[in-house]
Write a sequence for this structure.
């Protein structure tokens, strides 16, 4: 078994601020993901990474940067937080290769004042 | 792009009733996955079911790939089943595409 941890659990920022969210996994999974979930909605992919130092854009990458510092960690940066933005950011990981399930972290809830 | 449609959007049951959640998708090679999300909680994988039928406890997942549909059956529902259920497809072995979810409320 393994676990995915996300920090912080709650993040409050000011408009225009750069904010960073962090994710760690101990599954030894190759691929990691960042999703955004707006209230009452499904998940939308922001970035993913299939190995250390790799980055792939998802449908929602504009306004975000990501960094895969090492196999176990994946960071997401909101480059300029937008006022009234409120969403949960979910990190996930999986083994590379067909047939692998994705496992999710508990999420970081972002509020921009 | 990939399309994943879930129905119904919401469902209210009395405890003990059964539920049938539907998922329709645009790709034939889907590797369908079902998730459960408790309000305010993380997503928990329920089933990874590329095709056929799988059972876990009171839950049954059925995927009919050539008809581009899947279903999640919950038997004898309990109040603790309340939450949101998502289906997702993985047509390219790398990225999941999610439906918008079915919000289930089970009343005592």
């Amino acid at each position: 078994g393994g676990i995915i941890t996300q920090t912080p659990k709650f993040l409050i920022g000011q408009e225009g601020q750069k904010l960073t969210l962090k994710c760690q996994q101990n599954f030894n999974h190759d691929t990691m993901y960042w999703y955004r979930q707006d209230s009452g909605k499904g998940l939308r992919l922001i970035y993913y990474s299939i190995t250390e130092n790799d980055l792939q854009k998802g449908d929602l990458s504009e306004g975000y940067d990501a960094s895969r510092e090492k196999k176990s960690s994946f960071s997401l940066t909101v480059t300029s937080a937008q006022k009234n933005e409120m969403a949960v950011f979910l990190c996930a990981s999986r083994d590379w290769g067909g047939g692998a399930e994705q496992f999710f972290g508990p999420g970081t809830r972002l509020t921009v004042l | 792009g990939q399309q994943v449609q879930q129905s119904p959007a919401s469902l209210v049951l009395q405890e003990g009733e059964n539920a049938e959640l539907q998922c329709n998708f645009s790709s034939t090679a889907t590797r369908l996955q079902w998730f459960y999300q408790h309000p305010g909680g993380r997503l928990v994988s329920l089933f990874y079911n590329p095709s056929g039928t799988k059972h876990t406890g009171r839950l049954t997942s059925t995927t009919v790939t050539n008809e581009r549909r899947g279903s999640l059956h919950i038997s004898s529902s309990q109040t603790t089943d309340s939450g949101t259920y998502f289906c997702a497809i993985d047509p390219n072995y790398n990225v999941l595409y999610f439906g918008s979810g079915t919000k289930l409320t089970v009343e005592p």
User: Anything to note?
Assistant: Residues 15 and 43 of chain A are 23 Å apart (CA to CA). The interface with chain B takes residues 31, 33, 40-45, 48, 50, 56, 58-59, 90, 92, 97-99, 101-107 of chain A (CB under 8 Å). The mean pLDDT of chain A is 92.
